[in-house]
Amino acid sequence: MTTTVATSPSLHATRPTPAHLLLATMIAFIWGTNFVAIRWGLDYLPPFLFVALRFSVAALACLVLPRPNVSWRLMIAAGVVMLGGQFGFMFLAIHHGMPPGLASVLIQAQVPITILLAALLQRELPTSAQFGAMLLAVVGLVLIALDLNADVSLLAFFLMMGAAICWASGNQMVRAMGQVNAVALISWMSLFAVPPTLLLSLLFEDLPVIPETHGLAVAGFAIFYNAVISTWGGYGAWAWLLARYKAATVAPFALLVPVIGASTSALLLGETFDTARLAGMALLVLGVAGSVFGARRR
């Protein structure tokens, strides 16, 4: 998620301290391992209900955090699309067999899609470096799509692309809000992600059978990790760093997320990657990196 915080440019430090570098790495670790937590939770919870429970817990912060000074319409739309849409599609994709490691890479397609939407909607043309990086990312996506086999369906792939499009669309909405407190914003947006996902759960999902003690503990941990550790802790710490350093200093740490996501999924879930899929994933991540760093020069 693109986060903005109200701060003065003069307050931005140039070199992160070792402790702050460790904090940025820990945030990437939390967001990367969250994909494994999602997979564990989906063993006991249907996807839309899982999303609704995640954001119900995250929205509890609204009780103590003031509503950001943005229009209700824009905040509701961002909550529904960026949170409900993104994670609804993502959880559904993983439910339908998308491996968590591959999901952590495919969701990064939101970066070139965000740049494309900015060009179409705000006339912010990409730099030549960004354009080349976007092509590299597309080649990576095509390689991954062509390599899909029995373990990953084309449906799961397109659901992940739907998640990336929702994230990229939400980025445009958040940008339109201007400088706001990121932690308060994500909490209030969470509030509006609950009704549509809960309604979809009631319409299309059977009520889950209450699992045994172990399953209940796993489901509870997955909800806690997603709502408290990843949403409150991750975005809160990310906003704290953005208030102290330039975005160009902090943002590259997000590139560690797909690397950590794929690595932890391979380690904890036994996910494997053949040569073609690994090459596609590498090209996509390189394309995302080029899109981030390519913005610095025309």
From TrEMBL:
- Give the membrane topology: Multi-pass membrane protein
Is Membrane one of the keywords?
Answer: yes
Q: Where in the cell is it found?
A: Membrane
* Chief localization: membrane
Q: Which UniProt keywords apply?
A: Membrane, Transmembrane, Transmembrane helix
One Pfam family matching this protein? EamA
Q: Which residue ranges run through the membrane?
A: 21-42, 48-65, 72-95, 101-121, 128-146, 152-170, 182-204, 216-243, 250-270, 276-295
How is this protein annotated for GO cellular component?
A: membrane
- Which stretches make up the EamA domain? 21-145, 156-291
PANTHER family with a match to the protein in the record: AMINO-ACID METABOLITE EFFLUX PUMP-RELATED, INNER MEMBRANE TRANSPORTER
- Per its record, how is this protein called by name? Integral membrane protein
State the species of origin. Answer: Roseiterribacter gracilis
